[in-house]
Write a structure and sequence with these properties.
The complex is a heterotrimer of chains A (about 325), B (about 425) and C (about 190). With about 425 residues, chain B is of the alpha/beta class. Chain B has 14 helices and 18 strands. The longest helix of chain C has 18 residues, at about 20-40. Classes of the chains: A alpha/beta (about 325), B alpha/beta (about 425), C alpha/beta (about 190). At the A-C interface, helix 1 and helix 11 of A face helix 3 of C.
Chain lengths: ~325, ~425, ~190
Amino acid sequence: MTAKPKTAPAPAATWTRKDLVSIRDLSPEELTLVLDTAAAFKQVSAREIKKVPSLRGKTLINFFVEPSTRTRTSFELAAFRLSADVVNISASTSSLSKGETLKDTARNLQALHADVIVLRHSSAGAPLFLAERLESSVINAGDGAHEHPTQALLDVFTIRERLGHVAGLHVAIIGDILFSRVARSDIFALLKLGANVTLVGPSTLVPREFEKLGVRVTHDIDSILPEVDVVNLLRIQHERQRKEYFPSLGEYTAFFGLTRERAARLKPDALIMHPGPVNRGVEIDSEIADSPRSVILDQVTNGLAVRMAVLYLCAGANHTSSN
Amino acid sequence: MLLLRNGRIIDPANKRDEIADLAITDGRISSSLPPGEPFDEIDCSGLVIAPGLIDLHVHFREPGQSAKETIATGARAAAAGGFTSVVCMPNTSPPVDNPSVVTWIREKAEREACVNVFTTGAITKEIAGEELAPIGSMFRAGIVALTDDGHCVQNHELMRRALEYARMFQLPILDHCQDYGLVGKGVMHEGYWSTILGLPGWPSAGEEMIVMRNILLAGLCETPIHCQHLSSAGSVRLLRDARARGVQISAEVCPHHIALTDESLQGYDTNFKMNPPLRAQSDVDALIQGIADGVITILASDHAPHCAYEKEVEFDMAPFGIVGLETELGLFLDLLVHKHKAIDLPRLIAMLTIEPARLLRLDRGTLSPGVPADVTLIDPDLEWTVDASTFQSRSTNTPFNGRPLKGRAVRTIVAGKSVWSLQDSPNSSVAAAASAL
Amino acid sequence: MNPTEPKPPSPPAPDAVLVLDAQAIDRALRRIAHEIVERNPDPAGICIVGIPSRGIEVSRRIAAHIEAIEHVRPELGVIDVSMHRDDLRIRPKLPMVVASHLPPDIADLTLILTDDVLFSGRTVRSAMDSIASFGRPRRIQLAALIDRGHRELPIRADYVGKNLPTSPTQRVYVRFQAIDHVPDSVWMDKQ
């Protein structure tokens, strides 16, 4: 009896989007493609000459209406390593402060033949707004409380790199979920890749409504620590807008902070993650932030690789559609 | 002299629903035409002859915001929607909080409007919710109701005094029910979709809190209050219970709150951003049920024109509201009468004629002999598609462009003169500055 | 049917003609291995660098043959070329990127770039460009299983398995057991 020939491997997913606006839009195959591409680009930063010519001659504009040094620097470096030209615009230097609308500012940028616009904005939906109206590629670097796609991508990349896979893992996201774009993007990415997600935090900041997305919600951090494979801590702030949501940072830390005692109850190879910047002593004990299980710095390195991959995929070829 | 021949006359005030002719003499309804005089005739076979429709919630933006709409263009939009009388909200620039602005509007309307334009006055000075506006003087200047629409008096004591003071003049109070604390910066219904989209939510309780406030004050002051643009199931439940106990509270519903849900906001299209917001399917169902069992007695549009450049911005920053006069009747016919069969045609017409007329004590909304001949001819089965480029309104901010509807006004008659008819309206776009939706 | 006789491979396209079978491929690669060893006597001084995707299989085989001859296995590497392509703008689809691996210090090494088919030469140019961002190797040589002519750049192979005259529009197909799960074979479209 002759053996049946093995079927040829499935064709790899292709990327046809000119923009990256949300994780929620992506298929699991597209997500995996970004991660695989990022793995290749991670190697570039280990070379003597950390540059490839993939985006040579292309112009990237970091348009940060909401300020951020870390994310902007990461995108800037990613663009440089792809040989693109970079310009940084922040809200105070832009005409937005003089009353020009976002749409007009963006169209002016396009008139300068900007190939990529990386947008961080405090209004949810702003990157989609631009992506629909511009021929330039639009990359969402964070829009209000909606999404922060590259953060989620680097988070799942880090998990995959350290633990070998994402499917079947139990991931806890801890902190202010309600106002967090990182939490939303992470939830979508983790669920698409087959992980189980538990959200933890004060009931005012982690409403049960989130359960409709397919995640668990608990307000008792101690009950889940021994079960989880990954702990992702979100930065907690007690600014003016949050004062009605919880009484003080001290109370937050007592009930939800990753203290030394709590960290000791984690599985030995559980990962400790944080999108940064870290509030030492608040959401995480200072020593724990520097411990071997903490992959916070890996996240930064991987963020650069992920952003190179995203820029390569969206702007490397001439995609025209938004989906 | 005009004879409307052979139409289905639906005049709820006079409990009339029959095929007959309607005579109009010297601009008034008459029981018959004087014999021997020449007259014009309109064949109304297959059409409904209704009293001129009344929309008691529109924004005509004058004085001060005429880029969005003027009294003249707003009136034309009303006529194109089949409305012969409209009631304007006072949140203009400056607001209608003193008699001279009232007079300005009335005189402008007299000169330029092709339909009857009634005006409301603000409850509080500058619509700031702190001190009573000169209600008596505004009454003398001709307002038909009081409202802080766009805003809501948060101070319950002040609202109580406003109700008691307005009672002297028998001025109805219309309230935009919104509790600022609960609503906060909300821009869409607080629910599953606001969670996914990361937009601040406007919980139903924010409306219900004030509906409850109004029910209590209506009881306390023994004066009627009318709740504008109801949007939530909870509000309907509160209303049903209060009305059953005999409280003098009424409410209106706008077409978008029964045509759309918060799911439409996925694309962050600001043409779906309204106040109060589009809510969940369960709210839509409750509103339709409330209309069907008579808890909700009035229908309106909340026609809120905005320039394209004002709406085409980030979602958080866009103004709330959509135009509605030219799609209102079509949507209500299509959804309430045809699709959901919640009410029959005579009841629909009553909710747009005699019900608002009674609330505001307007001498309109009937076809009784002797009243001014405001008449709307309706083809209840006409299938058409909404085309914003043909709107008479200066603005085209609508989520309904391209939507197929069944039922439409085909002619609008004010004081015996035809001010709009479907067959004579131009098909080309009117507004110069409209950009693609 | 004799169960030990290998099944004849089936053509990848209806009009394709078999150019090299498994035996011929193996002989060619063995000969290339001998030539490499002849020109580079010290096996520690070379690194066989495969160009994805099929060049990797070629490099693996050549390294195995060298090991059989010299009893020392030479270093293996991979060099991604897609990040350095000069035609990204024209291609409708983005090529898949792969992580590159080269020994940490290539300054004293002779890198032997390996690919299955040498055609326009642009892939090899991209590979050399990519290598430049790792450092400056002592020498770069080029081995190709098939040289089908029609160079668009001044590039030539140091080691060639078979010269195959083709017209520019004829397609050449290379199949490897390890990748394609069919017997090793090289085909080309009929004229």
